[in-house]
Amino acid sequence: MAKMNMLQAINSALAIAMEENENACVFGEDVGAFGGVFRATSGLQEKFGKDRVFNTPLVEQGILGFANGLAAQGTLAIPEIQFADYIFPAFDQIVNETAKFRFRSGNEFNVGNLVIRTPYGGGIHGGLYHSQSPEAYFAHTPGLKLVFPRNAYQAKGLLAASLESNDPVIFFEPKRLYRASVGDVPEGKYTIPLGKAEIVQQGTDITLLAWGAQVEMLEKAAEMASKDGISCEIIDLRTVAPWDVETVSQSVIKTGRLVVSQEAPLTGGFASEIAATIQDECFLHLESPIERVCGLDTPYPLAHEKEYMADHLKVYEAIKRSINY
Amino acid sequence: MAKMNMLQAINSALAIAMEENENACVFGEDVGAFGGVFRATSGLQEKFGKDRVFNTPLVEQGILGFANGLAAQGTLAIPEIQFADYIFPAFDQIVNETAKFRFRSGNEFNVGNLVIRTPYGGGIHGGLYHSQSPEAYFAHTPGLKLVFPRNAYQAKGLLAASLESNDPVIFFEPKRLYRASVGDVPEGKYTIPLGKAEIVQQGTDITLLAWGAQVEMLEKAAEMASKDGISCEIIDLRTVAPWDVETVSQSVIKTGRLVVSQEAPLTGGFASEIAATIQDECFLHLESPIERVCGLDTPYPLAHEKEYMADHLKVYEAIKRSINY
Amino acid sequence: MAKLLNVDNPNNTSKNDTLNLEFVDEHALAIPTFKMLDDNGELYKDAQASSMDKETAIRIYETMRFIRVFDERMLAAQRQGRVSFYMQCLGEEAAVTGSAAALEDKDMIFAQYREQAALAYRGFTLEQFMHQNFSNEKDFGKGRQMPIHYGSKGLNYSTISSPLGTQIPQAAGYAYGQKLKGDKACTICYFGEGAASEGDFHAGLNMAAVHSAPTLFFARNNGYAISTPASEQFKGDGIAVRAVGYGMKALRVDGVDVLAVYEAVKKAREFAVENNAPVLIESIAYRLAAHSSSDDPTGYREKEEEETFRANCPIERFRRYMLKQGWLDEAEDEAAKEKIKADVLSALKVAEKVAKPALEEIVTDVYEDVPLHLQKQYEQLKQHILKYPEAYPATASRIEETK
Amino acid sequence: MAKLLNVDNPNNTSKNDTLNLEFVDEHALAIPTFKMLDDNGELYKDAQASSMDKETAIRIYETMRFIRVFDERMLAAQRQGRVSFYMQCLGEEAAVTGSAAALEDKDMIFAQYREQAALAYRGFTLEQFMHQNFSNEKDFGKGRQMPIHYGSKGLNYSTISSPLGTQIPQAAGYAYGQKLKGDKACTICYFGEGAASEGDFHAGLNMAAVHSAPTLFFARNNGYAISTPASEQFKGDGIAVRAVGYGMKALRVDGVDVLAVYEAVKKAREFAVENNAPVLIESIAYRLAAHSSSDDPTGYREKEEEETFRANCPIERFRRYMLKQGWLDEAEDEAAKEKIKADVLSALKVAEKVAKPALEEIVTDVYEDVPLHLQKQYEQLKQHILKYPEAYPATASRIEETK
Ligand SMILES: Cc1ncc(C[n+]2csc(CCOP(=O)(O)OP(=O)(O)O)c2C)c(N)n1
Ligand SMILES: Cc1ncc(C[n+]2csc(CCOP(=O)(O)OP(=O)(O)O)c2C)c(N)n1
Ligand SMILES: [Mg+2]
Ligand SMILES: [Mg+2]
Hints:
- Chains C, D: It is an enzyme of class 1 (oxidoreductase).
- Chains C, D: InterPro entries: Alpha-ketoacid_DH_E1_comp, DH_E1, THDP-binding.
- The complex is a heterotetramer, with two copies of chain A and two copies of chain C.
- By secondary structure, chain A is an alpha/beta fold.
- Chain A folds into two domains: about 1-185, 3-Layer(aba) Sandwich (Rossmann fold), CATH 3.40.50.970; about 200-325, Rossmann fold, CATH 3.40.50.920.
- Chain A has twelve helices and 14 strands.
- Chain A has helices at about 5-20, 45-50, 60-75, 90-95, 100-105, 135-140, 150-165, 215-225, 245-255, 270-280, 305-310, 310-325; strands at about 1-5, 25-30, 55, 75-80, 115-120, 145, 170-175, 180-185, 200, 205-210, 230-235, 240, 260-265, 290-295.
- In chain A, β10 (about 205-210), α8 (about 215-225) and β11 form a beta-alpha-beta unit.
- In chain A, α3 (about 60-75) runs parallel beside α4, α8 (about 215-225) packs across α12 (about 310-325) and α9 (about 245-255) crosses α10 (about 270-280).
- Chain A is globular, with a radius of gyration of 19 Å.
- In chain C, α6 links the parallel β4 (about 185-190) and β5 (about 215-220).
- In chain C, α4 crosses α10.
- Chain C is an alpha/beta fold.
- The termini of chain C are far apart.
- The complex binds thiamine diphosphate (TPP) (2 copies) and magnesium ion (2 copies).
- One thiamine diphosphate sits at the interface of chains C and B.
């Protein structure tokens, strides 16, 4: 065990995978000698050489197009998109190509060897274009797996599992926690299974659900609620697609109440999918409407970031609304 | 009044707008001399000249980038994306630029003069790449209006309103109905307001909701259900974003039951947003879970298109499930 | 005059200066078209010597002959409503076959959609073509894509994808992987002059150059993208001239001249594999057919233009060459054509009776394994179909069987 | 030898043929860099005559002087934690200011983010700059974007957008609209050599050429895109050489030489507006500063390299020229710099005390009117803030006021 922050944990997972796979490639804007603008790939070029760890030209659609081809060829391709806000030029390559590669070819070809890493999320004074959480755009696309770590330990284990998966994965890294989340992380390899939600805290009165950095907001809100005598069950979804309906609905059947929280705007967000599914799965058990605590339906603002965010206070209020319904 | 199919109705709305706005431009792949692969822009180049109606190079990101600039400059820009399946290369220009133009500039600049037309949807043996219904990707993006006509009359009136709107609009044309939907359409100008759902059929037992070509499936299913003595209220949402929560929730408060149907895959589709919102708005009035009848969570297949589609039989079964809950 | 920069130039530009304020002309570089064979199938005087042996020539000729007949018959089948859609290679057979013949089998092919001749050259069988077009259960693609979306892992032919241009950066990535593994192989990437307008073109060519990926970018400039003529697609000198913008070598070749195409691609392949460098090849050949079976060119071009180009037939030109070489017998050629027609017809009759893919295939291959939610959706669908078997005739009967 | 095509060439290519199988070399076209002023601020012997009058020269000089001081002070303010982020123009002041000066006021500017000097030249005030950087309620952008994302309708300066390259096709569209309206104006579009790798670059340049839009594409090749040197960005001869691929005229200019930039852009503007045609201009000037206040270049380049380029200062070169012309007085120049420093400091002190934008602005401008669902979200938010005023200090007190 070592103390690592999330960047170090990610770096360690990458280094191990590159040692295991002699052709694995890490590439993207500034990931080479410099080690990435957040330094997640720091030291990798020195270790594995310029052929396997390299800067690309500044073209996200090219990075993903190149990655699709490289993965189809059989190489473990680990591209980085510098900010999730800049993943959209690659949207066609991801949604029409990556996600459909295996299906359209009848499994003649696949890009299961592809793991796209990208920092996402707000709370860092990034304004419109350094704060977005675009998971819902991808969750509506069959064929992709979407993975979100909430801390350093989860990051290393989930990334290792993503790198082993034979399906393409988008690995969303909560940049707000890159350095803030420090914890005990094994130096060797371990994996955390994809597709499984984790019950982070057991509780009886209400279920709280989130993924990535937003889990922290739930924890803070649950602490406030516990002072009111409310016992919260906290679930970290971890894999947003395909998601673990079972774990969530069992919890809601037990508690009868659900608050889902996401950073992204409310409308059409993944919280809506969860609410839609759970109202169906748990209809007779629900004692109050499923609450969604989300970003506003506006672009992500700078000066009003605090007001915009789905913070712990808003989650706490939703808990109370739900309990007092 | 004249008998028109949907293509003629659209063509007529375009011609009227181009007469009213001396600089309005229609452009896109093959829309010029040829009049578009579906012939929606047929005759427009002859009438308004090559400067205002023109073929573009084959580059969707360019078409939308150019359109954003042209609209910002003050010209009514009416680009066509040949198939909605090919809108994804333009995703960044739409989601990061079109949608955020006014907000990010504090209203110094806007692209309210932009109407993107694109044929969408399945049922035409188009397979993966000529069948998609990508509205959910855009509905999660604040700043866009999304409009869906269900027939020729609606198409002309809604398109005219879109062309008058000072917000950017994506106008989704149900290509399955282009020639199939024929009806009385005024030759002159009229508009149908954006943002307002329409109750297509009054009913008391259950609410059925859809948009675009899918409304036809509801009508067929409702007819089957009426033979079972079930009275269906049918709502055409017409504007998917921002959507008319009021009309839908009032109907559900009355009927106590809701079936939402969409062509796109279930997970993360717009039906999920509706279910999430309505379970909240109408919690105490719901007598059964909100049913979503959607495409499967797979890419759109060719040979199994019939099986894949959210057809009237599947809607009918959902109605019965809901009633018998 | 002092050089602009006195350290190693970080701007990656040539270092010569000028005091004259002059535009670089928009046509500063014009690229000639390489050819070998004249219309009569004779080598031009002073033409490059041909390195194509008899065996290769025959295989090329047979491939082109097959594709011509196959295309005709399939279009007819489409007109009869037997297949839903079709696209012909008419006029571009030499460009596609000649380039495919210049490759090695281990080289990867990323095609656009009009390159069935390359796949046929590699050995895709008539039956395999047919099953794909009928989206039946023997289609490698499991009936999921529209006709002409072929693919074959065994033949190193990546499954066709309709969104244009996406295969261009993919080819660069694939080639990069080949280089890393030390395969001594390359990837060829076909695309139309229309698709070359996509952003992915820029991405793919630049990345191949920067990352030294042995990629052959084969631009089929056939004059049209559906109805849009090349003159409304770009103002530069075709596609080849763009190579210099990427620091990439280029060639332009007469796409109606199979010998020229073969030599050009052979040379380009050699260069690419030996130097780990991409090459851009532009072939000039007119799209003689309609864009697809859904298209009618009379809406956008003159019959007369078509007729002029019809006279310039790549197969006929090569046939004359083959005859002169004594590598072809006219009578046998005619007989072979008749046999292909008959074979196509009977393969068609077989394929159209082969069952649709099993219902299970509606949820497979989305992921490596079928996840829970898709298992559930499949189960529901099955029950639904069993309730309304007459509404889903292609699958209903077979579910009952397997139940 | 017969021409390849005997009707009007639908393939849009040059028609000359060749029998020689030769690659077009990857460096077949190399573009020289236009310059006028030497390091000492003297015109080279045989240099083009300058058309810049005294008034313009002074306005340019004052703009550059202002931006240099402003940038320094703002970076310092960032280091003190007073603004969250900043980007300097250091080393590229001449390229940006000289090009802006060559335009007319009615010409539109689409910038990337490092072109504050163009906006200053147009008349954006120190206070306006400052309010944007402090995202306060006087910011035209209503505090929504990060520092340096300026915009001004009145000055025809499109609001900066962070996603790179998106402004390139937008500029083509804007210019097309100007042409349609008969404005006799053009649009200039600035972008970095890194952003020129984006697909939108290809889209924008090709569309401008095909649709004859009077657009000046101004590539600032400053050698780096954050840490990525141009040598890992492309293999061609800079950005200018790509113009020939689009059938577009091009110029390369020494971006440290304000006279050369001014003359080049003036000539390009004249050509673009008179002929409704785009021009690509590439300016060569080193990015002397860090990429942004978040960046530290010691991680990817040698101090020595920086020092070499620091000696090649665009403002110093022009200062010498101005002195020689007798258009500048050294003492006054020094005094002016001191005054700017003081002005910046006091403007900063004012701006940082101006209130944040009102809470309402969180839901305005998403649409022209605030739709129902946003009215509702705003109402909920207001109630929430009133419950926890201490958690939202920037807005809480003011809501109570206006309640
Ligand atoms: C991204 C995308 N946009 C549009 C289309 C529709 N489309 C199919 S083929 C075609 C024209 C392609 O022309 P070209 O690349 O020249 O190839 P050719 O048909 O001439 O062989 C178009 C516009 C598509 N398939 N993909
Ligand atoms: C689409 C997109 N991708 C990535 C980024 C992150 N990013 C911001 S600036 C920059 C480098 C730009 O370099 P260049 O275009 O050369 O401009 P310069 O900073 O040198 O002026 C990058 C990668 C972005 N803003 N947008
Ligand atoms: Mg073509
Ligand atoms: Mg740069």
